[in-house]
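Input/output pair, single chain:
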Amino acid sequence: CFGELGLTGRVRPVSHTGPRLAEATKLGVSGIVCPPGTTGPAEGLSLSCAGTLEDGIELAFDRISTEGRA
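Output:
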């Protein structure tokens, strides 16, 4: 996950998404929960966008339970 979290729980975009996504790929990460509108070189990555912290948690835990069953 990456992004800036506001006091209201809103997830906001951050700068330098391209290098962040490239580094995640190098480290073997398969999926990212990110702010809406995130773009960049996402080869081999599954991007799931979350507008709020609550959405991000749901996406992350759904991904973990899905990967655990595979």
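The helical segments are 17-26, 53-69. The longest strand covers residues 31-34.
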